Amino acid sequence: MTAPNVLLVILDSVRARNTSLHGYGDRTTPFLDSFAGEAEWYRQARAPSIHSVASHASLFTGLHVDQHGVTKHESRLAPDATVWSDLAERGYETGLFTPNVVVTESSNLAEPFDTVDGPRRDPKHRYFEDALSPTDVEGHQTNVEYLRRCVASGKPLRSAFNGLYFLSSNKEAYDPEREAGTEYVESFLQWSDERDGPWAACLNLMDAHFPYEPVQEFRSAGTEELLDVHDSLSSPISKDVAASEEWWKLRAIEALYDDCIRQADDAVATLVDALRERGVLDDTLLVVTSDHGDGFGEWSRVDPRVRAAYHSWSVHEVLTHVPLLVRRPGGERGGANDSLASLTRFPAVVEATLDGEAGSFAVDDRAFASTHRLERPAVMLPDDCEDPERYGGPWRAVYEQDGDDVYKYGTHGSASATIRVRDAQVSDRVSDDDGGVVAQSYGELEGADVSDGESESLEDSVEDQLESLGYIR
What we know:
Blueprint: E1 5-11, H1 30-35, E2 40-46, H2 52-61, H3 65-68, E3 75-77, H4 83-89, E4 93-97, H5 101-106, E5 115-117, H6 143-152, H7 156-169, H8 181-193, E6 199-205, H9 223-232, H10 237-244, H11 247-277, E7 284-289, E8 295-299, E9 307-310, H12 317-320, E10 324-327, E11 335-342, H13 346-354, E12 366-371, H14 377-380, E13 395-402, E14 405-412, E15 415-421, E16 427-431, H15 437-443, E17 451-454, H16 460-468
Helix pairs in contact: 6-7, 8-11, 9-11
């Protein structure tokens, strides 16, 4: 066989707990349920963080979050440190297909890829073609600086109007229908069809990411009423409920989230069916997973003062326990795997596959999950939020396997706990401390010089997209 293709599919924000694959009551993942018969299904897989930028950096490098230090939207990761750069050196053509602005625009995680598709905004740069526009100026500029340039341009009124036109046309909110997973699957399939040699791609599908607005085909009974509740929450929703204490609204819109998971599952079905029909599936390492889950008001077991909301803070199991299915070239080694697994193993699995071996996502000793969010809770949360510091990071967890169970050791400030996890649905707190496991384990991690710092500022259009996607800024 020639060099196998590599395809990483990330179902952004899909938590294991809400998938029928992991025993959820509603049939949210009918395709993944059946696909597990021909793929290796890890029932105890953990994401390395709860935030796209940090989890993707770990997936791409094989490093834990506290090793790579890529934790903010503006973070910069050394492209040469990624598995995609390694694949490019081996002669692979690489592609990234996603509407995720965190991956494509606010950070530089898209830099190692030859082709990048998304997000699909269509910004209008100017109304008057013969006058100055904000896009004519490189780098960040304040409104006052732009107005000064307008005056100096010789066409101040037209240039000023172009500035207003640019701002209004680029504040378009995230459009779930235009950015649906099937749209990016179609784009990826066209791209892969045009490759002459081996390819390696990442598909990050945002169907289950906030805003939870399933397309018409996947809307269940009562969707319209639930959308009214959904729209009554201002974005960022975690900021809203932390201040308003209207946690019931989060619980209500979880049903919309379930519909969105069903939509994402259908996109994967379309993808796999197309690869099979093209005769490409058996020549491809296919990994289907998620970068993190979302919270809908679940109380933290590590720090009982805090409830999980969206993916803004905490290392709750609903945020870190994710689905993971691996179909190797030829479709061998299907079935369930109860070993503790970490997504940081992705580069190692790719390397093993290229060497003709069956690499594993299972860890030898322990798995890690951590987040530094929120970095500045007193500033980032509203003034009327009671005790905002309780949401501040870092939050850290260490996982170890003991027989059929996984033990989670977690810390947040002075709070700590040991939690026994049976599966994605059942877990219980067994101790009010972590026995010092977290401090010891994190103290043994060695740092890696792969972070290139942060961007000084983000464009207004990127900031607007981040806000529309629910991120606290």
